[in-house]
Automatic annotation (TrEMBL):
Residues 1-70 form the K-box domain. It comes from the Eukaryota. GO terms for molecular function: DNA-binding transcription factor activity. This is Mads-box transcription factor 27. Transmembrane segments: none annotated. InterPro entries: TF_Kbox. GO terms for cellular component: nucleus.
Length: 126
């Protein structure tokens, strides 16, 4: 390729240089446009992921609030923090899971009387 240039005069060389510069400018312009389009696509993806992250954060926050509300309803204010480890929300339902390794505490107590029994303790036969 360099052998072909040796026979050209200065005017022809400058014309060839301008052609090369214009071709190079066209290649750079196409490359800049391609990079710009790729950047726009990446920007859209970043925005979608950011919005999805915000939505997931909002959803998890509302599920945590729901779980805390259910714990409060089940255990009341005093026991909500103590027993919350046994409550789990799965598939939008509340599940109470007891620890299988927890010790069982059993106590003896007097039997309770029903409201319809006579206060004296005797049974009315009929």
């Amino acid at each position: 390729m360099g052998e072909e240039l040796s026979g050209l005069d200065v005017k022809d060389l400058r014309s060839l240089e301008k052609q090369l510069e214009m071709s190079l400018r066209g290649v750079r312009t196409r490359k800049e446009n391609l990079i710009h389009r790729e950047n726009l696509e990446l920007y859209k993806k970043v925005n979608l992921i950011h919005q999805e992250n915000k939505d997931l954060h909002k959803k998890s926050s509302s599920e945590i609030e729901l779980q805390e509300m259910l714990i409060f309803q089940v255990y009341g204010t005093r026991d909500a923090t103590r027993d919350s480890s046994n409550l789990y929300i799965t598939n939008n339902s509340l599940s109470i899971r007891e620890d299988p390794d927890a010790p069982v505490c059993l106590q003896l107590c007097q039997p309770q009387q029903n409201n319809h029994e006579v206060a004296s303790g005797s049974t009315k036969l009929g």
